Structures are given as structure tokens and as C-alpha cells.
Amino acid sequence: QVHLVESGGGMVQPGGSLRLSCVASGSVSRITEMNWYRQAPGKQRELVVRSAGGSGGVTVYSDSVRGRFAVSGDSAEMTWHLQMNSLKPDDTAVYYCKINTLHGSWWGQGTEVTVSS
Hints:
Layout lengths: L1 E6 L2 E3 L5 E9 L4 E9 L6 E7 L6 E3 L7 E6 L4 E6 L8 E9 L2 E4 L3 E5 L2
Parallel strand pairs: 2-11
Antiparallel strand pairs: 1-3, 3-8, 4-5, 4-9, 5-6, 7-8, 9-10, 9-11
């Protein structure tokens, strides 16, 4: 069983920054992809960042966060981070990490980010 835990969410003013973390534990086999999603109130879950191979691979950011968000991490350590800068009220959402492996996909429970003055 694989378990993902996100942390680092909170409330921040527009223009501020937050750093989210995602830590995996359990029997994690080869990671093919590591993703960050978010779900704003009343909206569908949105893919924010897709990172091939879990770390060091090609990373694609959604148009809404490109240039402001950056991922880092280490698949060997099973720890990833999402650095979020220049936050906007539209970034308010619950943020989830997800890993895809050869044997399945797993989600974290989410961490809430609120951007408000």
C-alpha cells in the first residue's frame, strides 16, 4: 500500500508564496509520473503540473501557473515540493499530489491553499 501526505497549505495574501510538500511511503515501485492537481470550490479538479519520471524528467505546467510555480523533488527520497510564488486569489484551492507507477496510481488527501487579502 502506498500513502501520500501533502503539507504546507495555508492562508496567504495575494503576491505571497507557499511551498507545498508531498511525501510518499509504502511499497512504491517505479514512478512513471508525479503530478500536482488542484480543485477550487465548485470547480473540477485541474492538473497543474505533470512531471515525467517523478523527478528530473520533462515537466509541464498549466498555463495558469507557468512562470509562478516550480516543482522539485527526489523520487528516491519519495519527497516532492511545489513552490508557489506570486499567488493570486484564483489559486485558492485544495492541492493534491498524485503519483503514477507501473502498479497503480495514488493520491494524497490534499492541502488547502487560500489566497486572500
